[in-house]
Amino acid sequence: MTSNDLTEVKKLRISHFLETAKLIRTLKERFGEEVYQIAAKQIGKRAFAEWKSIAEKSGKNSIDDLVKFLWEPLKKEGFDYEVEQTDLGVQMKCTRCGFYDLAKHFGITEEAFYMVCESDPYITEGFNSNIELKRTKTLMQGHDCCDHFYYLRDDSAEKR
């Protein structure tokens, strides 16, 4: 695949992202807020299946593997984040997100939250049902960062 082909693929992905957001917005205006939840669940189901397949094919599904497979490729896409290993799990702090940058540019952060951010728990569970995700902030919702804390279900989130 040439760099021109890759550029075309990226343009198509962006176009699809924008069209999906536009469709979700239109449906929400007609049918109400519940559309966001329906969209998030449908997108989440697909993400669950994709990440379950990734874990099965790789034979790896630890928290470190999730960070490696999910987050490391995002650096090439302009994401900025820090990773902190703790006794309880892995704390991610993302201060620049390519999805957020795109959504903000096109004024679709509300829709993008449900299209992208709300799939994070599905990704986590699909990858390994024993890994839990706790998140209290997202760039899409106007916070200064996204915080993702991955931990094993057996560990108490209260200790964090």
What is the compact description of this entry?
Helices cover 57% and strands 16% of the residues. The chain contains six helices and four strands; from the N terminus they run αααββαααββ.
Radius of gyration: 16 Å
String of helices and strands: HHHEEHHHEE
**Residue-averaged pLDDT, rounded?**
93
State the low-pLDDT regions, or none.
Answer: 155-160
Number of strands: 4
Percentage of β-strand residues: 15-25%
Structural class: alpha+beta
Based on the coordinates given, report the CATH architecture. Answer: 2-Layer Sandwich
How far apart the termini lie comes to 45 Å
CATH topology: Muramoyl-pentapeptide Carboxypeptidase, domain 2
Quickly name the level 1 CATH class.
Alpha Beta
Summed up, the domain count is 1
